[in-house]
Write a structure and sequence with these properties.
Elements (H helix, E strand, L loop, with lengths): L3 E4 L12 E9 L10 E2 L3 E9 L1 E5 L2 E5 L4 E4 L4 E4 L7 E8 L2 E2 L5 E2 L8 H13 L4 E2 L3 H16 L4 H24 L5 H14 L7 H7 L4 H12 L3 H17 L6 H7 L5 H12 L3 H12 L1
Antiparallel strand pairs: 1-2, 2-9, 3-8, 4-7, 4-9, 5-6, 5-8, 7-12, 10-11
């Protein structure tokens, strides 16, 4: 495959794909100064190294990439080569737009066939990932090449097929991230990490699918692991986290019960009050009064 660069707005091949900002392959046979300066893009950029050795700065941190490695560059993150020099070698890449949510997370756009839960889980995994260098990841190269082949061939239903390929790319990347950062065999650590992530966004209505996605498991295995490790179902485990956070907040007099209910993910003050009494024996207001009485 020869080198190429397709850009939305400039390449007719991408006319039907406004979510594909750029697709390309670069083959560099000599060291080129000032050819890879620092850039910051709005889209999600995914690079696969096919030949050579590249030293790239991602968010001002140096990473070294070898054949088979993937660079995962989130929207708004700076990428540039060491001393702006493009080294000898080759790589293939794609840049796609993603929706930016109010909570700072991202997810695929309307073009995606992923379910809402799947899209949310993948977006959270990518946003919470702090390892932009993914090793030994040949699937990315194969998928990007397949996208290019479909674009050039323009066979029947190629638009659907290309969007399916992009969905598959995001799925594979999210799975790789979770596999590289944690192992299902090390579930106690994954369990601890999961709780930290859940507490960071308790107002979100977490589903079992989303929680399972954060630790890189299917829902069945995740449910079994949580039940075995904690004694609770995933939803009951989540409710216990919500209640423990609510208890901490109730000890503060500057936060209303209604705000606590919403901040910890309950649908209403009544839902919060009923659940809290069921698990603690007290209504939230009673718990707060008892706490204030005890500290006087």
């Amino acid at each position: 495959m020869n080198q190429f660069v397709l850009q939305y707005g400039k390449s007719v091949e991408l006319l039907l794909f406004p979510h594909i900002l750029e697709l390309g392959m670069k083959k560099n046979g000599s060291i080129q100064p000032d050819s890879f300066p620092v850039t910051t893009a709005e889209g999600l950029r995914i690079y696969h190294i096919t030949e050579g050795r590249f030293e790239w700065h991602i968010n001002q941190q140096l990473y070294v990439f070898y054949p088979g490695d993937v660079a995962l560059i989130m929207p708004g993150i700076a990428l540039g080569a060491e001393n702006n020099i493009l080294a000898i070698g080759s790589y293939i890449w794609i840049q796609v737009t993603v929706q930016k949510l109010d909570n700072g997370h991202i997810q695929p756009g309307e073009w995606s066939a992923l379910s809402d839960a799947e899209a949310t889980a993948i977006g959270k995994i990518l946003c919470l990932n702090n390892l932009p260098a993914l090793s030994r990841f040949s699937e990315v190269c194969n998928i990007i090449k397949s996208i290019y082949t479909e674009l050039i061939g323009m066979e029947v239903a190629y638009q659907t097929r290309i969007n399916q390929h992009i969905d598959e790319l995001l799925i594979q990347v999210a799975r790789k991230v979770t596999r590289q950062t944690r192992s299902p065999r090390d579930f106690p650590q994954a369990f601890t990490d999961l709780e930290v992530l859940l507490r960071q966004d308790l107002s979100h209505q977490w589903t079992v699918e989303e929680m399972a996605g954060l630790v890189g498991m299917g829902t069945t295995l995740f449910t079994e692991k949580v039940k075995s490790y904690s004694g609770f179902s995933p939803i009951s485990y989540l409710i216990n986290i919500r209640i423990s956070e609510a208890i901490r907040l109730l000890k503060r007099t500057d936060v209303t019960v209604t705000d606590i209910a919403l901040d910890t993910g309950f649908y209403s003050s009544q839902h919060f009050s009923t659940t809290f009494k069921k698990l603690t024996g007290y209504r939230p207001s009673e718990f707060r009064k008892n706490h204030l009485r005890n500290i006087k």
